[in-house]
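LOG
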Amino acid sequence: MKSPNREARIRERLTAEVGRLDKQAPFTVALTYPSPYGAAMSSLGYQRIYRAIMESSGLACERVVLDDEAENDLAAQEHPASLESRTPLEEFPVIAVSVAYEIEIGGLIRLLDASNIPALRDERDPERHPFLLAGGPLTFSNPLPLAPFCDAIIIGEAEEITVEVLRVLESTPRHHDRLAALAKIAHVFVPELHGAVLPTVAKVPDEMIPAWAAIRTPHAVLSDMFLIETERGCSRRCTYCVMRRSTNGGMRMASMEKILELIPSDAKRVGLVGAAVSDHPKIVSIVNTLADQGREVGLSSLRPDRLSDDFVGALARGGYRTLTTAMDGPSEKMREQLERKAKEKHLIRCAELAKKHGMDRLKLYLMIGLPNESDDDIDECVRFTTELSKICPVALGIAPFCAKRNTPMDGQGFAGISVVEKRLERLRRGLRGRADARSTSAKWAWVEYVLAQGGPEEGLAVLEAVRDGGNFAAYKKAFSRLSTRIDVAKPRRTLAIAQI
C-alpha cells in the first residue's frame, strides 16, 4: 500500500521543480539514485545523465530514489516507484544507477530488495527482471564491490557512453548477446565476461564540458541552485585524491563566456561545480559577474592558496557568510605528505580576509588518521587553530582518512577506529571554547575504507550487512566473515577486521 504522506510529498516535489524534462519514449529506463531525493537533485553527475537520456531520440527516463523516511530501515522502505509516473522499479526494462561513493552500495541493495528484484545478478532472470547498469563517481576509483549486483558498469565520464549502451540494450533482446555487445564498447565493464579486469576510464570530448543540471528545486540539499561545471578534473597532484592531474588528462576548463550564457535568467542561486573551481583563471570575474546580476553564488571547492582579497570580496558579494576551504592535514608535515599547497600563511590570510569581508566564520576541512600521523600533529592542529580563532571564529569539519584506489596512497591502512576516536577527542579537548570541531563517524569511515580497498567479496558482505539490519554491527560482522582478507604482504589487502 502506498503511503498518503509519501505520495503527497512526491506531488509537492514535482510541483516545485523548475526545468524538468517531461517526455515519453518507446524505451524508458529507471534512472536511479541510491540516496534520498535531496541528494539526487544536488548531484550534477546524476542530473547530467538525466539530461543526456531525455535529449536523445527514442529514449526517456524516470527517476527512482531511496525513500527519505526509510533511508536506514529496510523494513520501512516502501515499494520503490518512479517519481514521474509511479511505475514500480521492477517494471522498467533497465535500471541505470549512479553510485557516488561506497556506502551507497547499501542503498542500491535496499532499493532492489524492496522491489523484490534479486540483488545478485546471478540470481536474476533476464526474461523477468530489469538489466542493471551502473556508473557514477565511484567508478573512478573502485567499482569492483558493485560487480556482484550489476550486469554492466560504465567506468568514468558516462554522459556520452550511456546513450550508446541504452541503444544496445533497446535493440538487443537476448541477454547473452547484450553482454557480448557491451563488452566490446570501450570503458564498459561487464563482470560476467571481464572478471575483475577493469577497462580504462572514459573521457568525454572537451566540447561536452561544462555539464549543467536541468532541474532546480527547493527540496534539494542545494536548495533552488542551478548547478554548472566551471572545469572538470584537476591540475594538482594531491596524493589522496582520485581526481588529480593524472586522471583523464587533468583539468579541462569551460570558458567564462560559455558558463555565463548557460545560466538561466531566472536562476537566483548558482552553484559552480568542479574538483578545483578556484583554480579557474576567470573565477573571480565569473563570481563578480553573477554578483552584479544579483545572484547568490556557491563554489564546490576553494583552495586556500587561491583566496586573494579580490576573490574573497567577490564571494562576499555573492552571498558567502562562511568562508570554507581546506586545511587538509592537521600539521605542516601531514600537508606536505599529501602534496598540498596549503601553508599556514595561506590559512592565516584566509582568516584575515574572512574577517575583513564581514564573514561569520572560517570553516576548514581536514583529515585525520593519516599515515605516520601522531599526537604531535594533532597538538600542532590545536595550536594553529587556536591562533586562527583569535583572528576569526573557526569551525573544523573532520573526516577520517580512507585510502582510495587509483591514487598514490592506494593500499595505505586505516588508522583504526579507536585511534581516530582518541585523536578526535584530543583535538576537541584542546579546542574546547576556542573552535568547533565536528567529524564524520570513524566507524563508518572504516566501512568505507574496507569497500574502497575491497572487491566483489566485500560487495557480497554489504548484502549480508544490509539484510542483517544495515547498522555498523552488521557490517562489522559481515566483514569479519570474509574468506579472504586484505593481505599484510600486499599493501592493498590487510586483515579488514584488524583495522577496527
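LOG (cont.) second protein
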Amino acid sequence: MNASELLEINKWLVDGARSAPTPSQMMAECCERLVRAGLPLWRVGVFVRTLHPEIAGRNFIWKPGAEVELGTVDYQILDSPEFIASPLVIVFRQGLEVRARVDDPASARFPIVEDLRAEGVTDYLALPLVYMDGFINASSWTTRQPGGFTEEQVNAIRSLTVPLARYIEIITLRRTATLLLDTYVGNRAGERIMGGQIRRGHADTMDAAIWLSDLRGFTALSDRLPAATIVEILNLYFDCQVAAIRAHGGEVLKFMGDGLLAVFPVDEYLGDEAQVCSRVLNAARESRAGVEALQFPNGEVVERFRFGVALHLGNVLYGNIGGGNRLDFTCIGPAVNLAARLEKIAGRLGRTVVASERFAGICNGDWSDLGEFPIAGFSKAERVYGLHDEAPPAAHA
C-alpha cells in the first residue's frame, strides 16, 4: 500500500471530493485511486438508507472497468430471506464489522459466500458508515487476491470509512431535504425553497391552469366507516389523481382533507396555453376513470365513488404565506378563489368535470354550456362548462 496516496485520498474525501461532482463519480474515482495505491479491490458497494415514503435505500456498486451501478430498494426487501441472511443486516442493526473469507468454514453461514466464490472473490469485508448522530449505513469491500485482504489492507479500508461517511452524510442530508420538500410541497416549490425562497413575502406571479377537486359524499362516508378505512380510501382516491396530474406536467400543491389543489404552469410550455389546458383535461379524464373504478383493497366494491374537479386558467401568486416561522408554499389569488367556487357548482350540478369560460374557450374538449352562475365574492356571473360525454345523475351525491 502507498501510504502517502492513501492519505491524499482521505484528504480528498474530507475536502468534498471536488473533482467528482456526483456521488457516482466520487465512487468511481475513489475506488480507482485506491487500486492505483495498491489496494486489490474487486467489487465495492455503498448502501445508504433513505427517508422516502417508497424507497428504503439506494446502493452504489463499483467494479473495475465498469460504470458505477446505481440501484434502489423498496421496503419489502427488508423482510426478504436474502436480506435477513446478509452480513449487511449485522452492520445496519448492530454497527459491527463483518468479515467473510471465502475459504473459512465459519463464513458459510452467509449465503452470499457461495455467490462470491463463483465470482472468484476470496475475501469480503462489510463496514459501518456512521453518521454524526449514530445513524448507520453500510459498505462492502471484496477482493480476488489469493489469501484475501492483508491486515494492512483491511486497516487502510477502515481508515476510509470516517471521511467516506462524512461525505455521504452531507450528500444524503441535501438529497433528503430535497426529497422531503418534493414529497410534502411538490418539486417546483421544493426547488424554490432550496434555492433560498424561505421568507414570508417571497412570492412570484405566474400564469397557470388550476385544478381544484373534491370527493363527493366524504362527510357521510366518514360517519359510516372506520377511520383506518377512510385513510385507505383517501390514499386510493388521491392515487387516481396525483399520478395523472404529474404525468401531464402538473404539481400538487396541497391536500385539504378530501380536496386537492394543483397547478399546471403555463410558462413551462413557452406560453402555449392550449397545450397546457389540453394536458390538464387529459389528466382530468384519466382521474375520472380511475375514481369510477375505485375499489377497496380486498376487491369488494363498497359504493361508486364520485369526485368533482374544477378547471380554470389565470394568474396566481405563488410563494410563502403564513404566520411567524410557520409558512406554507402555496398559491392564492382570484383565479384560485374562482376555481374553488366552480368546484362547488360542479357538486350542485352533479358533474365530475367543469371548466370556466376561459379554460373551455382555450381547450377544445367538446364542452356543453351549463349556464351562467353568480359567484360569491365576484361582481360578475361566470359561464360554466361541462363535458359532452358526461351525463349528470338523476340524484346528486
